[in-house]
């Protein structure tokens, strides 16, 4: 999610664990391949002992780049590609939407870095219940509900 102001830009990369609601957020100045790869490394550090990680994501060029794909494979991260133009299917995109509405919209911050830090803190300090709710994962219509209930084994 880009945060802009005075030609400055910060990008938040983030992921939410579909079972525990644990979140990982990385603040970057760009959204290029190197930044996406830094996020993959941060994600793997957070889940150091886990087996393969499955990451729901869009088809942004930084995600589909061969170098990013190769790194993901080395880090044991598999991408699950969401359909184009379907942010409603991404739980993390739902959190970004709430963040924009509650934290970033029509607000002034001391600096772009302060706003980015506040945004990241908001995502990371939600309780698991709040994160599940704001990400739309408690909805009876959440599209991955059956998979999580019936097939997904805890890691």
From TrEMBL:
**What superkingdom heads the lineage?**
Bacteria
Q: Which GO terms describe its molecular function?
A: nucleic acid binding
Where's the Tc1-like transposase DDE domain? 5-115
This chain belongs to the protein called Integrase family protein
